């Protein structure tokens, strides 16, 4: 399993089993094609969420936290609460979506069907550096190191225990968000690999068997399009919450840096605050980019299939049987151009990055104005 190429969907089983521990993926055996203790998984999933919320509330009852709340600005209170609520919502949605067995089953059954059509079953990854699990393990280690360093910084500046910081900053839920981002990236790369294969086979198609081969290619193209719709259904709300969390977390970091200039008591910790904000920014930017950029490039690969069909029509004699067959399948393929969306609210492409950056800038300016207004009132008093 660990040496399989991304071209064979069976490579994902170890990742799938690992994510099952965090209730990101369902308790489902794809080899035997049946659910595994679904009711127990629902009870355990709900219990895990309740336990996480209890740990957050318990950690917030610390005297250090209670005494520090009145000293915080209104923007700090609002943003911190917003971060925790967003991460909890993401956790809840992820667990609920893991119970949608039918969509998960259809997703992987479809991919197995496409792999059989493309003859990619048991395809091995020859390059060690391109091995998915090597990359996955490396990213996890880097993520955990950044989180540990952030906890060290916060523990040094607040005198809170690292365990309480872990829950108060939402780092536990943040790890789940990170794993969800990795899974999204993995599935999108799976789609992209198969669209590339379809495009390569369409370029090399034999004119003598054009009707039969076009039928097989367009069938695979249709199945992949169906999988994109399932992907939107399973992960649309998570993508929205990840994008929102990115925006509010970046504003939180910038706001903390700004406040450290205003409050003299915090200026001594400016370097720590800057490094902590940088760690969060790196992680959040990574989570956002590994979703949006691959989705955009996968959409372009999907559209290229339709363009290649149009070019292929120009190479056959007009009015021939091959031309009629090509015209038929090209028209059908146009109906299945991939469209990744966030639960149907908006399409996902690289322009979203600039939209998010613009929103971050807007809300940061608002927090500056609120902070200045608040501190000017305090100085008058």
Automatic annotation (TrEMBL):
Main location: membrane
A GO CC term assigned to this protein in UniProt: dendrite
InterPro entries: 7TM_chemorcpt
Record key words, sorted: Cell membrane, Membrane, Receptor, Transducer, Transmembrane, Transmembrane helix
Keyword match Membrane: yes
Keyword Membrane: yes
TM regions (residue ranges): 132-152, 172-191, 239-263, 269-295
One Pfam match: 7tm_7
Topology within the bilayer: Multi-pass membrane protein
Function: Gustatory receptor which mediates acceptance or avoidance behavior, depending on its substrates.
Organism name: Zophobas morio
Top-rank lineage group of the source organism: Eukaryota
UniProt subcellular location: Cell membrane
PANTHER family membership: GUSTATORY RECEPTOR 8A-RELATED, INVERTEBRATE GUSTATORY RECEPTOR
GO biological process: chemosensory behavior; male courtship behavior; sensory perception of taste; signal transduction
Name this protein carries in UniProt: Gustatory receptor
Family the UniProt entry places it in: Belongs to the insect chemoreceptor superfamily. Gustatory receptor (GR) family.
